Amino acid sequence: MLKGSIVAIFFLICLVSSSTPSFLGVSSDPFNQTLATKFWYLCMGSYCAPSRVAAWDLGFVSDLYPYVTDLTLIINSTGNACGFTAYNPPEDEVLIIFRGTEPLSIKNWIDDIDTLFTDYPGCPGCKVHEGFYHTYLQVKDEILASAKILFAKYPTSKKLVTGHSLGGALAIHASVDIIQQFGKIDHFYTFGSPRVGNQQFANFVNEINENYMSRITHYKDPVPHLPLEAWGFYHIDREIFFNQDNTDFTICKQGEDDSCSNSMLDIFVGDHLNYMGKDIVLYFLGCQL
User: What sign for the dihedral angle of Cα 84, 30, 35, 250?
Assistant: First the structure.
């Protein structure tokens, strides 16, 4: 009887284990569409005029999250790297948000993406896109200093990192530094991120991140195709690929998978500006003053 019970328990453990995915070998945290929508709204808010962000006057975004406090606006001298850090008390979470290129300039930014690599320190064989990395370095110290203050002030808080477009590339770089200096990130979502580095760098990011990374893409968005894989650039793991109407998604475990955005043979810039069913253009135009 005892032997039979042990076998039954063992069978149940195996069944539960086999039904729980572990794409990165560390966490079994599933993709959370509700959380992704929240992240997208916060990314949208980062596109507002800096004075509006600093005042937390972001229209529907600040209405949804009215208690955000301890906000620090981060912006480089050219204005092409922008974001903020803040604390959201109701959910005890530190927010680290990166903005991308202005929506009305996105086509020019896409056309101007270069193919230059630079060495990534502390990771033998790792190379990253020179422009994205140098843009991140311009705000790195401010981001990490602000994050350090918030993590110390709110030691039980969850760490949330997100970014859209160029901001997705900056978020990837920031996630590595935050993990190395402050421990694991609880949630990491990007939207329409370009490829950031070579395969060695992608492997490095995949291994160092202790939680699921959700790299969200939308249908014919052109940015996830850049810089080209043929030039030696590769995506980090776990792509969440949304269909045209943002009503369904496919999860691809690997960074490069022909079942997700790599399946698209043509592109549409409008899909880069519309995630989780919410378009950013009109919102952007309405929060610049």
Answer: positive
Q: How far apart are CA 282 and CA 238, in angstroms?
A: 30
- Beta strands 278-279 and 117-119: pairing type? unpaired
29 CB-contact burial (10 Å; exposed 0-12 / middle 13-18 / buried 19+): middle
- Looking up tokens 């950013």 gives 280
In this structure, are residues 217 and 260 in contact, taking their beta carbons and an 8 Å threshold?
yes
**Global pTM?**
0.89
Catalytic residue positions, numbered:
165, 221, 272
Q: What is the CATH number of domain 27-286?
A: 3.40.50.1820
What radius of gyration do the chain's Cα atoms show?
19
Instruction: Report the DSSP pairing between strands 278-279 and 93-99.
Output: unpaired
> For the chain, percent helix, then strand, then coil, each to nearest 5?
45, 20, 35
d(CA 29, CA 212): 6
Q: Is 171 exposed, middle or buried (0-12, 13-18, 19+ CB in 10 A)?
A: buried
Structure tokens at 241: 């690929």
What are 222-262's pLDDT values in tens digits?
999 999 999 999 999 999 999 999 999 999 999 999 999 99
